[in-house]
Amino acid sequence: PLPYWPEFSEVLFTTVNNWDQIQKFKAKDDDLLICTYPKSGTTWTQEIVDMIEQNGDVEKCQRSVIHLRHPFIECDWHIIVTDGYDNLCKINIFSIYYTHFPKIIYVARNAKDCMVSYYHFQRMSQTLPEPGTWEEYFENFMNGKVSCGPWYDHVKGWWKAKDKHQILFLFYEDMKEVSEELRGTNLDEMILDKIVQETSFEKMKENPMINRSTVPKTIMDQSISPFMRKGIVGDWKNHFTVAQNEKFNNDYKKKMEGTSLTFRMEI
Ligand SMILES: *[C@@H]1O[C@H](CO)[C@@H](O)[C@H](O)[C@H]1NC(C)=O
User: How far is the CA of 12 from the centre of ligand 1 (A)?
Assistant: First the structure.
């Protein structure tokens, strides 16, 4: 049976009402937090982590849709689901995924691809504001006028935090490269091989536990743009004009001044 999906207004309502509690969240010793700016590889990392934790057992990773296996901490959905394993279990946002990995995995994706991906996501998301034209969105993203605020502050903040806390800082572009190198090679490690296969973009796009096909159209209208759209590095080149690229680069230089954080815009 498919999990019950709350109406967005309901989600908002409980999140706002429980904000104090959400802010007071304290991780347990064996909790793992996956943190990202939107559209930077969240779903991908969730599936990889779950596959590792389940020792490459595909069936176990099918126990529920991904956004319920690893709930979002900032969305207080007390969702009642029947997931086929437990008759009835209450998924509580505060019982986060636990494992023996580093405390926090942060995934960062270059700003240009992130912007393009976010634009398409916002076009089909029925719960975020209309993104407007690409030209308008381009300006809004640079000005941080998007959900979750400026990309620049997000990545710089986490980059700094990694020196003080136990954070595994990953780049989407590296993950892409590594997964492509590993694919098709004759690995001794059968499990690793399986994880690489199962977490490829093509496979995940056709996995109903991942591709959001159970999310109603009133939340995500995938006829506008699929949730799993392209999953590549460098798609920004199909969107940025030469003038936009120049403008972006100048602005980027200013906003990213003083940080040692560097991104690859292509691989
Ligand atoms: C999700 O996966 C299912 C099963 O493979 C497939 O039928 C469906 O078209 C996919 N949905 C999207 C939006 O890609």
Answer: 27
Could you tell me the distance, in angstroms and rounded to a whole number, from the CA of residue 140 to the centre of ligand 1? 31
Most confident listed range (31-45, 70-84, 143-157, 243-257): 243-257
Q: Tell me if 266 is assigned to some domain.
A: no
Residue 73 lies in a domain: no
- Residue 95: the pLDDT is 36
pLDDT at 100 exceeding the cut of 50: no
**Residue 242 domain-assigned (yes or no):** yes
pLDDT beyond 60 at 128 = yes
Measured distance between the N- and C-terminal CA atoms of the chain, rounded to whole angstroms? 41
Using DSSP, state whether 178 is helix, strand or coil.
helix
Domain count of the fold of the chain:
1
Q: Name every residue whose Cβ is closer than 8 Å to that of residue 27 and which is 6 or more positions away in sequence.
A: 33, 96, 103
Provide the CATH number for the domain around residue 154.
3.40.50.300
